[in-house]
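Changelog note: in this version the structure field was regenerated for every chain. One regenerated record is shown below for reference.
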Amino acid sequence: MRDKIIRFFRLCSYFSSLEPRYFPCVILFNMMKSVRPFVNLYLSKCIIDLIFMNMSLTEIMKYVWSMILINLLMMVAEGYFQSRSQYHDFNLIRNHDMMKAKKLMNLNYELVEDDSLQDSIVELQYLEMTGIYNFPSFGKSIGNFFGGLVGVLISLFFSIEFFKADFTFRGLNNGVMNFIFLVIFILLNTLSFKVISKSNKEAGNFTRNTGNGIFRYIRSYMNIIYNYRTGKDIRLYDMNLAENAGEVYTENMCHIYSTFWRKLGKGTTISEILSSILSVIIFMFVGMKALYGVISVGQIMLYIGAINNIFKNASEIVKSLSIIIPSDLYREKLFRFMDLNESEGRGEISVEKGLGSKCEIEFKSVSFKYPGTDKYVLKNINLKFKPGQRLAIVGMNGSGKTTLIKLLLGLYDPTEGEITLNGKNIRNYKQDEYLDIFSVVFQDFKLLSLALGENVAASREYDHDEVRCSLQKVGLSKFLERNDLNTYLYREFDENGVEISGGEAQKIAMARAIYKKGRFIVLDEPTAALDPISEFEIYSKFNNIIGDNTAVYISHRLSSCRFCDNICVLNEGVLVQYGSHGELMADSDGKYYELWSSQAKHYKEK
């Protein structure tokens, strides 16, 4: 219980840090909504009493106009606070999404790639989509709780005189009758709370245990169907896949929502029945005192409304608690994610000051294995990246090539050993400045649905001439003749966006690396979608493009190694060979000779 209370107040504090004005607006809106009925009840009671007292119309109209004016002012205030609540609610969700994104960016990269963390993020997203756990529901429940609390207090204030009004019914005095009424009132409210809490918990558990898997399936399936880039495959292989999409979607969504609302609705229905029963009891109790003449006609309306509002506001408190308490499941998962250890702080050495005239990176007995595993992906790697060097890294799939690059970039930290830049551990440098020395094109690079120029520069502001020059250097001169730098790629943001081929996409990604002008150019199989001739042309140009900078190439096509000074051969995470193409080819028993020969035979005539 203590942990749940701590998480509750922590989420409230988290809300306030994201959007400070959110809670004040939500609470004020609900409090004013609770107060307004009592203005009408009290003034209506006064008007009725004045009528029965045969007071003048002028005197009566004073109360009528007061009621109209106060209602008008309160309705305007309610509308204002409601609209501001919705505005702050939008900002809250947006800021929360940004906070989660920043958290991911600050986590160790190997942790971000872990499947269990990705599953946790998906689960958080789906919990936030449900009516019990989402932010608007939590905020509204907090507002309803305070509004209900104020409503109960005001109701009790107006009801005190009613409970003091003395009468006796069949030998039972006023105190006993009041006690019986309060016992029934508390019992029905307690029962209502337990029923709603149970149904909310069952609905939430269903969403967590069953709904997530189905939602994940629906999302993946519908993404395939509605992604126009997969259209040709669907048409070619099986149109039934597309034709059955609606059926699959409807069946699964009906199952989720019908089950969810059936579990949730059951508690709501029972709660409404209990509410109706209590309303009847209230009418009977007030009516009995009216029949015995202990309250006036005007007071009948006031007390019925006030006591009904005790129940109504108590029900609001019950309903809000029935959401706030079960939603601890979400709070627990959210803070488990937010409390993940972020990347340890990097050093404070400025990279530019530490580099001097050279830029040499060295792996010293570096080994790496992923968290939670015992198998080493790389083992005891000793390797130097010398200034101005062209180095190729080759090996079979799974040999550790891309992992080595991620270690080089500082995305992964070595399990053993260290990586140094000019003799100092790379962790001693400012991380942002360290990353700035690299221009990288990963095998799984991403282009955004933004303008061509923004994709190359990775920024909204850029040097147009430099961007054009970078695109021309990778062989996209003809592409530039058909499209300008403001042309959008793809059609997510612009219906007139261009669809680019895989080869064009890779060339744009390479132009991005050139534009950045990093001291290290790293190409992780960037030419996989290019034909051998285009690949040869690009690699030929790159020697001139790179200039005095260091270049690291990863490629399955070993022909690219001919452009490199040295070649690093990995096999099952171990550095098995290192040398020039000629030196490695001289070793006919070596791994490089085996890889070269296996590729070369496919190009020979039979």
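Spot check on this record: The mean pLDDT is 79. Residues 69 and 314 are 28 Å apart (CA to CA).
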